Amino acid sequence: MTLKRTRVALGAAVLLAASISAPSATSSAATGGGARHHHHHHTDPPSSPDSGQVVLDWERVAFATIYPVTPIPVGVPLLGYTSTAMYDAMRASASRHDSSETAAVAQAAHDVLVHYVPAAATSLDASLPTSLAGVPDGSAEDRGVWIGRKVAARLIDERADDGYLDTTIHYTLPPGIGVWQPTPPATDMLAAWIGSMDPLVVKRLARVNGPDALTSDDYTTDYSEVKLLGGTGSTVRSQAQSDTAVFFNSNSATMVGDALVRYLETHPQSLEDTAWMFAAIHGAMTDSLIRCWQLKRDVGFWRPFQAIARAADDGNPDTAPEAGWTPYLPSPPYSDYVSGHGCLTSPAVEVIRERLGETTPLELRSSNFPTAPRTYATLTQLEYDALNARIWGGFHFRDAMSDAYAIGHRTARTVMERLH
């Protein structure tokens, strides 16, 4: 059950909205090479003087616009759309000598968010002039605004029938041993349609081998672990493990991204690198989430609390039931396999690991511990706690966590290849 960080990249994929009139060879973002792509060839346009701050500002705006109103998974594709539009607008503007990248990025983010969150239009309209105030008035600003509008309109048009918010799709698996069921009065899983969305960046979603058979040794091991450590009455879970479970039971769609925004404000990168990083993170989070929700809906593996209640019927003599077992933290309204938290945390961390390094110090903030942020010495330690938190909270079997991390890491690597 070890977490395998396989290096297999998955098949060909397509970058969503190809940059408007931007031949990729002239964009240094397209010359490849991870964190080492800062060299410029003589054929490149001049490196943009613009700061990455505009991206950080609009990531903050996106977080505040999308959350807390939207359920966490439902907001993730909107982060993907917004960050993709900013990156595409930056590239399209950078291919011209008379366009402001700052204006293009801000306008693209504004227009995408207004389209998908129209209730926030007034606030978004107020944020835009703040970004544009630093851009000299004139043709370059006008050109950037025009490019930003075009990029946003193209993304909105291309995603118009991508399955987002298609509420005709439901969870339909009949009750049975090993099968998750909604807890009454609920009759459906949250946002079953996410599993039918068109991917944002990759062409083929990452594959995993499905949950362990109920009679397998691996399932027995995972069952015993979560039963022992994840219940409200556990005498084995330590205070540190309990605190970690609660700490990470915060918004997993924004926790790592928010920490990265604050890190980059004190360790600034170019506009190009900043836009690339968030497009990769939120594109990979979106495509990991789509696979996750497809598995949650179509496989429908039961949660630990359901498994422990019905263990006498699972055909496995080594899994003993425990009457009244309840998870330390309430289980979300969808099935166990694979973990949504894992499918959001792992791709974000993988992009940062690849681009900024394993020892990047991210200060994570939790709504449950507002005065006690956490900074990890390594990203692997961060992932260790984030992964185990869901077992210590009683939400998930370990297999649902390790397979989610495999999906997230593979998806992130594929997305990074596509965005160069």
Question: Explain this structure to me?
Answer:
- The protein is an all-alpha fold and 420 residues long.
- It has 13 helices and 2 strands, in the order αααααααααααββαα.
- Strands 1-2 form a two-stranded antiparallel sheet.
- Helix 9 packs antiparallel against helix 11 and helix 12 runs antiparallel to helix 13.
- The two termini are 33 Å apart.
- The relative contact order is 0.16.
Binned strand content: under 5%
For the largest beta-sheet, the strand count, sense and barrel status come to: 2 strands, antiparallel
* Molecular shape: elongated
Number of strand segments: 2
Could you state the order of secondary-structure elements as H and E? HHHHHHHHHHHEEHH
How many DSSP helices?
Answer: 13
